[in-house]
Amino acid sequence: xxxxxxxxxxxxxxNTQAEAKADKHLITLHLSHKNxxxxxxxxxxxxIAASVxxxxxxxxxxxxxxxxxQAQSRLTNSQEQLAExxxxxxxxxQRTEILENENEEYTQHINEIxxxxxxxxxxxxxxxxxxxxLAEEINNMSGTSTDSTATASAENGDTACAxxxxxxACLSILENGSTSQSGEKTFTTIVTxxxxxxxxLSAQLDKMNVMLDLTGASFVDVATNVTETLAQYSNVxxxxxxxxxxxxxxxxxxxxxAISDGRVHKGVDLSTRSQIVPINATAAGTVVEAxxxxxxxxxxxxxxxxxxxxxxxxxxxxxxxxGDTVKKGDVIAMTGSxxxxxxxxxHYEIQLNGIYQNPKDYE
Length: 363
Description:
Blueprint: H1 2-23, E1 27-33, E2 36-42, H2 44-147, H3 149-155, H4 157-182, H5 198-233, E3 246-249, E4 268-271, E5 278-280, E6 285-293, E7 297-303, E8 308-318, E9 325-326, E10 331-335, E11 345-352, E12 355-357
Antiparallel strand pairs: 1-2, 3-4, 4-11, 5-10, 6-7, 6-9, 7-8, 8-10, 8-11, 11-12
């Protein structure tokens, strides 16, 4: 009886200890296997530690993800900035090339302006020299005309009057040309123009070009007017005796094989392509020969009284006679193919004091 009570007390004590021990474990796992079984006990501390560890892992992962995204964003921004910088660099490179090209153009423009300015000065100097030369020639012609006025009036009133007024007409042309040129400045110096002022430089260049062209055109007009006025009454041959022609044989007094057909040719052949057309005197003078020659055929020779003579050959007919006085432009014959000729043309010669001249030098 006493033993049963002790056993019962011991049993109760063990149960109480087991229950107390069981209360310390939150989860108890019983694992069975072939050799027996095993019990795992999970306490609250274990669970809390596991939860903390899980939170740390999740938090670290989240932080790592955020850090990765931020790094990726910074990398993207850096790439965009690099691309923008490369784009700006290309723009700067292109701008630099443009500026270098503009610099080269500006330098070239300056050189062109300097060259054109020198050309302009040379032209104006040439114009002034031509004016002086023409004025001297006019004065000489005026003196000669004054000495011969009485005789000329008796023979030909119209010619004498024209020669008497030649000096006044030519001097008037020179004076008018000079006035039109001296009325205002023909160009503006650009020495003080800033190299870096593109607009100013461009404007000055355009102005210089325009004024150079105007001055050149005025020079040509004045010189042409004076030359034409003088040539109308001058004894110096000028131009060719035909209005329309083709030079078929060049001037070749030395028989140079590289010129035309290589034979000696002391004038030029002016082809009219089988057309019979008028032949005009190239300067004023007196007819000294108008006859037929085996080589020249029908020809006319004019003495211009100042060492110049001209000859017009292979004519179909002569329209002047020896002793006739002609002016520049007067019709003296008709083209033909007489004498030693293979086609309709005019053989034209110029001599100065007996020396053959190239008619091209008197165009």
